[in-house]
Amino acid sequence: MNWAVVIAATVTLIGGVFVYRWQKETDRLTELAKERRATYREFIEAIEEYMHVFFDGDDTARQKAFSNYRVSKRKVILLGSSWVLKAIETHGKCLAECRAVMSGEKEGLMEELIENIRKSEDEIIVQMRNDFAYGIHVGFSDILPLPREHRE
To answer: pLDDT at residue 125 above 50?
Structure first.
């Protein structure tokens, strides 16, 4: 019996098992990244839709947009990183505070609250981008500014 052949075959087999497992894990992570991107994109669209009716939309439009926002937020909760979820939580707090001021339950400056909502939206985008930067921290200053419409 030629031991060199047996050893070479065994090493090849073990190496093949490790490469196969590594490739499966890589494929799984790639698929998760695709799913996250689609989910994040849907959530950003839901935020935009909701913010268009948040301040001056009728109740029916506001309820429909909020429902879409809530459903897409739940999808992000299933797949999103903890950094994205923290940014979404901050955004939700900003919206709640703004709603309280709009209803008269609380006092506050609307301009400041609107700016906080915008900053929290930007932070969501930054954290979503960081999710795909693979270890490279992306800050808001690294992202080209997008034109923003005035939402009042």
So the answer is: yes
Nearest to 61 by CA among 72, 70, 52: 52
Q: Within a domain: residue 152?
A: no
Q: Higher pLDDT residue, 145 or 44?
A: 44
- Output DSSP code: residue 143: S
81 or 141: which carries more pLDDT confidence? 81
Q: Based on the structure, what is the number of domains in the chain? A: 1
Q: Identify the domain containing residue 101 by its residue range.
A: 39-142
Say whether 5 sits in a helix, a strand or coil: helix
SS3 152: coil
Burial of 26 per CB tally in 10 Å (0-12, 13-18, 19+): exposed
* Residue 51 placed within a domain: yes
User: 87 in a domain, yes or no?
Assistant: yes
DSSP state for residue 1 in the 8-state scheme: -
Instruction: Estimate to the nearest angstrom the gap between the alpha carbon of 94 and the chain centroid.
Output: 17
Determine, yes or no, domain membership for 5.
no
